[in-house]
Amino acid sequence: MKKKSVIIIVVMIALVVATVGYTFVYLIMRSQGGKQQQRSRADTVYPVRTARAAVSVLDDYVNVNGNIEALNSVSVYPNIGGKIASTAVNLGSRVAAGDVIARVDPSQPGTNYALSPVTAPISGSIISTPLRPGTTVTTGTAVTTIGDISRLQITAKVPERYSAYLKRGLVADIMLEAYPDVVFRATATNVSPVLDSTTRTTEVILTFDEFDTRVSAGMFAKVKLYTAQYTGAVTVPADAIVTNDDREFLYVFKDDDTVERREIARGHAVDGIVQIVSGVMPDELFVIEGGRQLFDGARVNAVSASGGE
Q1: Confidence class of residue 170 from pLDDT cuts 50, 70 and 90?
Q2: Which residue, among 48, 97, 9, 57, has the nearest Cα to 252 in the 3D structure?
Q3: In this structure, is the dihedral angle defined by the CA atoms of residues 162, 167, 171 and 175, taken in order, positive or negative?
Q4: pTM of the predicted protein model
Q5: d(CA 101, CA 111)
Q6: How far is residue 64's CA from residue 158's CA, in Å, rounded to a whole number?
Q7: In whole numbers, what is the pLDDT of the chain averaged over residues?
């Protein structure tokens, strides 16, 4: 019985020794493997693209639709009711103030009156089709509309959230479906002081900076209205920023071909370009592509993407 107990004790001691020895060897091998991985990672050269940090201006904007109209347009009414006897103009005709554009016959059955002339109150062009002869009119019936097509305006509705930025003097790029590759310039000349409670928009009137015969009243316009300029900070592509635990970083290239991880603070952003208000200085090289695989002190092979060496 004693001999069996001794054997059991010896076996248990052997198992404990073997377990401890295995654990010790495993820990040593794991430590060596970790060190090898660290050495391998530190020795790796990561290919990246860099760009030189520079201060630039970001132009913020809003895209809206607009309608092109004559800056000055007037509906023309007769002085007396009757029937249109004749018209002296057509759609697009040029007229001067005082020109006769139509004549109205006020005669009734059994009576005979002289024709009453309808004259142009302003100079401009006929921008709506005149009523045809024989049409019955009253003093409240518009015979046609005259507009000054040499001075056109764009009426646009801007969403309420941009109202704080709206003011006279804002510039805009105007694109027309008829000329998709041409950009026309315009300036905001009037901003409605009242917000439309139905559409939640503010009306903005813009006038073209230059007269262009390609632009006509009645055209549909796409308006890119520039609302604000952001200056005084380095700008970088948003894709260059690396996020970790809700903190944002850029990797800055150093003279020894390694990178330094810098925590940054964002400013305004427009079309994927971001202001960096702290963390990177002008003229420093930063990683623009390849930053996701990097760590502080990583060795890199840098190729300039723009503005670099």
Answers
A1: very high
A2: 48
A3: positive
A4: 0.71
A5: 24
A6: 7
A7: 88
pLDDT digits (tens, 9 = 90+) for 199-222: 999 999 999 999 898 998 889 999
Place of tokens 């990561």: 46
Q: CB–CB of 128/181 below 8 Å?
A: no
For tokens 């809003």, what's the residue?
A: 62
Residues linked to residue 154 through DSSP beta bridges, in sequence order: 68, 206
- For tokens 């073997």, the residue is 18
Residue of 67, 59, 271, 57 lying closest to 174 (CA atoms): 67
Strand 45-52 and strand 299-306: the pairing is: parallel
Distance, in Å, from the CA atom of 110 to the CA atom of 7, rounded to the nearest integer, reads 145
Confidence (pLDDT) at 73: 87
DSSP, collapsed to helix, strand or coil, labels residue 287 as: strand
* Residues, the chain: 309
Q: Residue 190 forms beta bridges with which residues?
A: 205
Beta bridge pairs of residue 273: 237, 270
Q: Is 30 exposed, middle or buried (0-12, 13-18, 19+ CB in 10 A)?
A: exposed
Q: Which of 68, 17, 59 is nearest to 205 (CA)?
A: 68
Which tokens go with 258? 């390694």
